[in-house]
Specification:
By secondary structure, the chain is an all-alpha fold. It has one domain (2-212). The chain has nine helices and no strands. The protein has helices at residues 2-24, 28-52, 60-91, 98-107, 112-127, 140-152, 158-170, 172-185, 190-212. It is elongated.
């Protein structure tokens, strides 16, 4: 009975904290989380650079493009989840406040950082057993085709799939944070807040898993 009361106390404290941050909190922590997430995702491009070895010069243009995208990807993820929560809240009959949802979505980015590190490690080990194709590309389009051929060899690799599953499991912490913050940000019940938080995360996790299998 006491354990149940403690659990309810922790849940209530979390909810009150996120409600306060959603209403009046500054964006320092969410913005830092988005920046760190971009840096963690950038490791996937760095892993590709390491795996290519001396051949990296052949893919330098694409690596730079990927790297620049990774740096802003944390903010893109933040924006996409914010928009998804807002739309789902409207469909669920809530009265969402966009600014509140934006803050709550930012607070839930933190678990994405260790997840991105796990994905990078899985990609690194999966690429160790892959041989870079020996045909000569001419132009950006063929460089892209050659890089796709190289990375496609890792699809379905147990280490890549396992790390993807593990990383997506870590993201359940994001759903926990979001669900407790969206109750007031969207003016919905806790049950509906869980649904609103889980649907976009489920689609994101499925997208990551399908990518690991090359679908």
């Amino acid at each position: 009975m006491e354990m149940g009361a403690d659990k309810m106390s922790v849940t209530s404290t979390m909810e009150l904290f996120l409600q306060r941050k959603a209403a009046t909190g500054r964006l320092y922590v969410p913005t830092l989380s988005a920046i760190l997430l971009g840096a963690a995702l950038l490791l996937q491009t760095y892993v590709l650079y390491l795996a290519l070895g001396e051949q990296f010069i052949e893919q330098i243009d694409l690596l730079v493009i990927f790297g620049l995208y990774r740096l802003i990807e944390g903010f893109i993820i933040w924006g996409l989840f914010t928009a998804s929560f807002y739309i789902l809240a409207v469909l669920a009959g809530g009265t969402p406040l966009f600014g509140h949802i934006f803050r709550v979505a930012g607070w839930g980015l933190a678990p994405f950082i260790p997840a991105a590190l796990i994905w990078a490690m899985g990609q690194y080990y999966a690429l160790q057993g892959v041989t870079y194709p020996d045909w000569e590309p001419f132009g950006m389009e063929q460089e892209w085709a050659k890089l796709n051929e190289y990375t496609a060899a890792t699809h379905g690799d147990p280490l890549l799939v396992g790390s993807t599953v593990l990383g997506c499991t870590v993201l359940s912490l994001s759903a926990y944070i979001w669900a407790h913050g969206l109750t007031t940000a969207c003016d919905v019940s806790r049950r509906r807040a869980w649904i609103i938080a889980s649907i976009p995360l489920m689609f994101y996790s499925c997208w990551r898993l399908l990518g690991a299998f090359g679908v």
